[in-house]
Specification:
By secondary structure, the protein is an alpha/beta fold. It is built from four helices and nine strands. The protein is globular and about 40 Å long. Bound molecules: iron/sulfur cluster. The site of iron/sulfur cluster (SF4) has 13 residues, from loops.
Length: 188
Protein backbone atom coordinates (compact mmCIF):
# COMPACT_ATOMS: atom_id res chain seq x y z
CA UNK A 1 0.00 0.00 0.00
CA UNK A 2 1.21 3.55 -0.68
CA UNK A 3 1.90 5.94 2.18
CA UNK A 4 0.55 9.38 2.91
CA UNK A 5 2.52 12.22 4.47
CA UNK A 6 -0.04 13.86 6.71
CA UNK A 7 -0.25 17.33 8.19
CA UNK A 8 -3.24 16.55 10.36
CA UNK A 9 -6.59 14.81 10.41
CA UNK A 10 -10.02 15.37 11.93
CA UNK A 11 -12.36 12.43 12.07
CA UNK A 12 -15.41 14.62 12.50
CA UNK A 13 -16.04 18.09 11.12
CA UNK A 14 -18.96 20.00 9.63
CA UNK A 15 -16.83 22.80 8.14
CA UNK A 16 -15.02 21.15 5.25
CA UNK A 17 -17.87 20.31 2.89
CA UNK A 18 -21.50 19.20 3.09
CA UNK A 19 -22.62 17.17 6.08
CA UNK A 20 -20.49 15.38 8.62
CA UNK A 21 -17.08 14.52 7.27
CA UNK A 22 -13.62 13.31 8.11
CA UNK A 23 -10.98 15.76 6.87
CA UNK A 24 -7.43 14.83 5.95
CA UNK A 25 -4.79 17.53 5.44
CA UNK A 26 -1.65 16.37 3.68
CA UNK A 27 1.77 17.94 4.20
CA UNK A 28 3.46 19.86 1.40
CA UNK A 29 2.48 22.36 -1.28
CA UNK A 30 4.97 24.00 -3.61
CA UNK A 31 2.82 27.00 -4.53
CA UNK A 32 3.58 29.16 -1.48
CA UNK A 33 0.53 31.41 -1.95
CA UNK A 34 1.06 34.45 0.28
CA UNK A 35 -2.43 34.29 1.80
CA UNK A 36 -2.51 30.54 2.33
CA UNK A 37 -4.67 29.57 5.34
CA UNK A 38 -2.32 26.71 6.22
CA UNK A 39 1.25 28.00 5.78
CA UNK A 40 2.59 25.37 8.17
CA UNK A 41 1.42 22.73 5.67
CA UNK A 42 3.34 24.24 2.73
CA UNK A 43 6.82 22.94 3.48
CA UNK A 44 7.57 19.72 1.65
CA UNK A 45 9.04 17.64 4.43
CA UNK A 46 8.44 14.36 6.14
CA UNK A 47 5.78 14.89 8.79
CA UNK A 48 3.46 12.03 9.74
CA UNK A 49 3.85 9.01 7.47
CA UNK A 50 0.86 6.69 7.44
CA UNK A 51 0.14 3.57 5.40
CA UNK A 52 -3.11 4.15 3.53
CA UNK A 53 -4.56 0.87 4.79
CA UNK A 54 -4.15 2.16 8.37
CA UNK A 55 -6.88 4.67 7.60
CA UNK A 56 -9.48 2.09 6.80
CA UNK A 57 -10.40 0.99 10.33
CA UNK A 58 -10.04 4.58 11.53
CA UNK A 59 -12.49 5.93 8.99
CA UNK A 60 -14.81 2.95 9.29
CA UNK A 61 -15.04 3.58 13.07
CA UNK A 62 -15.59 7.31 12.55
CA UNK A 63 -18.26 6.65 9.94
CA UNK A 64 -20.14 4.50 12.43
CA UNK A 65 -19.57 6.76 15.42
CA UNK A 66 -20.34 10.11 13.78
CA UNK A 67 -22.61 8.97 10.94
CA UNK A 68 -20.19 10.45 8.43
CA UNK A 69 -21.35 11.44 4.96
CA UNK A 70 -17.90 11.63 3.43
CA UNK A 71 -14.26 12.60 3.55
CA UNK A 72 -12.45 15.74 2.40
CA UNK A 73 -8.83 15.93 1.27
CA UNK A 74 -7.03 19.25 1.68
CA UNK A 75 -3.58 20.52 2.48
CA UNK A 76 -1.05 21.20 1.57
CA UNK A 77 -1.58 19.91 -1.93
CA UNK A 78 -3.51 16.63 -2.25
CA UNK A 79 -2.43 16.18 -5.87
CA UNK A 80 1.19 15.72 -4.77
CA UNK A 81 0.01 12.60 -2.94
CA UNK A 82 -2.47 11.44 -5.54
CA UNK A 83 -1.40 7.80 -5.48
CA UNK A 84 -2.21 7.25 -1.81
CA UNK A 85 -5.27 9.46 -1.86
CA UNK A 86 -6.64 7.65 -4.91
CA UNK A 87 -6.50 4.38 -2.93
CA UNK A 88 -8.13 6.03 0.05
CA UNK A 89 -10.79 7.67 -2.13
CA UNK A 90 -11.60 4.34 -3.78
CA UNK A 91 -11.97 2.69 -0.37
CA UNK A 92 -14.21 5.52 0.86
CA UNK A 93 -16.45 5.38 -2.18
CA UNK A 94 -16.74 1.61 -1.90
CA UNK A 95 -17.86 2.11 1.71
CA UNK A 96 -20.58 4.65 1.00
CA UNK A 97 -18.61 7.83 1.71
CA UNK A 98 -18.47 10.79 -0.65
CA UNK A 99 -15.09 12.32 -1.55
CA UNK A 100 -14.24 16.02 -1.85
CA UNK A 101 -10.82 17.32 -2.91
CA UNK A 102 -9.49 20.88 -2.54
CA UNK A 103 -6.52 21.49 -4.84
CA UNK A 104 -4.44 24.53 -5.77
CA UNK A 105 -4.24 23.26 -9.37
CA UNK A 106 -6.87 24.04 -11.97
CA UNK A 107 -9.02 21.12 -13.04
CA UNK A 108 -7.81 21.55 -16.62
CA UNK A 109 -4.19 21.36 -15.41
CA UNK A 110 -4.98 18.09 -13.65
CA UNK A 111 -6.41 16.62 -16.83
CA UNK A 112 -3.43 17.79 -18.85
CA UNK A 113 -1.01 16.10 -16.44
CA UNK A 114 -2.34 12.82 -17.81
CA UNK A 115 -0.97 11.17 -14.68
CA UNK A 116 -2.58 7.81 -13.86
CA UNK A 117 -2.67 8.47 -10.10
CA UNK A 118 -4.24 11.89 -10.56
CA UNK A 119 -6.80 10.51 -13.01
CA UNK A 120 -7.62 7.72 -10.55
CA UNK A 121 -8.09 10.22 -7.75
CA UNK A 122 -10.44 12.24 -9.98
CA UNK A 123 -12.33 9.06 -10.85
CA UNK A 124 -13.21 8.59 -7.16
CA UNK A 125 -13.82 12.27 -6.43
CA UNK A 126 -17.40 13.53 -6.21
CA UNK A 127 -16.66 17.22 -5.86
CA UNK A 128 -13.44 19.04 -6.74
CA UNK A 129 -12.63 22.62 -5.70
CA UNK A 130 -9.76 23.97 -7.79
CA UNK A 131 -7.30 26.86 -7.72
CA UNK A 132 -5.33 28.63 -5.00
CA UNK A 133 -6.82 30.91 -2.36
CA UNK A 134 -6.51 34.60 -3.30
CA UNK A 135 -7.29 36.97 -0.46
CA UNK A 136 -8.39 39.85 -2.74
CA UNK A 137 -11.06 37.60 -4.22
CA UNK A 138 -12.53 36.53 -0.88
CA UNK A 139 -15.78 34.68 -1.54
CA UNK A 140 -18.77 35.67 0.61
CA UNK A 141 -21.31 33.67 -1.35
CA UNK A 142 -20.24 30.06 -1.19
CA UNK A 143 -19.79 27.73 1.73
CA UNK A 144 -16.35 26.14 2.38
CA UNK A 145 -14.72 27.99 -0.54
CA UNK A 146 -12.19 30.73 0.10
CA UNK A 147 -12.01 32.87 -3.03
CA UNK A 148 -14.13 33.48 -6.11
CA UNK A 149 -11.43 32.23 -8.53
CA UNK A 150 -11.89 28.73 -7.13
CA UNK A 151 -14.26 26.62 -9.20
CA UNK A 152 -16.39 23.72 -8.08
CA UNK A 153 -16.60 20.66 -10.34
CA UNK A 154 -19.25 18.06 -9.70
CA UNK A 155 -17.58 14.94 -11.07
CA UNK A 156 -20.41 12.56 -10.11
CA UNK A 157 -24.12 12.94 -9.34
CA UNK A 158 -23.57 12.65 -5.58
CA UNK A 159 -23.87 16.42 -5.05
CA UNK A 160 -26.03 18.78 -7.04
CA UNK A 161 -24.62 22.06 -8.37
CA UNK A 162 -25.80 24.87 -6.07
CA UNK A 163 -25.15 22.99 -2.83
CA UNK A 164 -22.20 25.33 -2.20
CA UNK A 165 -24.61 28.31 -2.00
CA UNK A 166 -27.00 26.88 0.60
CA UNK A 167 -25.78 28.67 3.72
CA UNK A 168 -23.76 31.71 2.53
CA UNK A 169 -21.44 31.30 5.49
CA UNK A 170 -17.96 30.15 6.31
CA UNK A 171 -17.89 28.35 9.62
CA UNK A 172 -15.01 27.73 11.95
CA UNK A 173 -14.61 24.89 14.44
CA UNK A 174 -12.42 24.77 17.51
CA UNK A 175 -11.62 21.39 18.98
CA UNK A 176 -10.07 21.38 22.43
CA UNK A 177 -8.73 18.24 24.01
CA UNK A 178 -6.52 17.81 27.06
CA UNK A 179 -3.48 17.75 24.76
CA UNK A 180 -4.25 20.09 21.88
CA UNK A 181 -6.33 22.86 20.37
CA UNK A 182 -7.29 22.47 16.71
CA UNK A 183 -9.05 25.02 14.52
CA UNK A 184 -10.44 24.32 11.10
CA UNK A 185 -12.97 25.70 8.66
CA UNK A 186 -12.64 29.39 7.98
CA UNK A 187 -10.41 31.21 10.48
CA UNK A 188 -11.23 34.83 9.45
S1 LIG B 1 -2.30 26.15 -3.27
FE1 LIG B 1 -3.60 26.19 -1.44
S2 LIG B 1 -2.46 24.99 0.10
FE2 LIG B 1 -1.02 25.50 -1.54
S3 LIG B 1 0.00 27.37 -0.82
FE3 LIG B 1 -1.72 27.98 -2.13
S4 LIG B 1 -3.47 28.33 -0.76
FE4 LIG B 1 -1.89 27.14 0.38
Amino acid sequence: MPYLNLATIRLYTESEGPGKRAAIWVQGCQRRCPDCCNPAMQEIRKNKIVDVSDFWPLIADAKEKYQLEGVTFLGGEPILQAEGLADLAEWCRNHGLSVIVFTGYLYQELLEMNNPHVLRLLKYTDMLVDGPYIKELYDRERDWIGSSNQQVFFLTDYYKPGIEYEHHTHSMEINITDRSLQMNGWPF
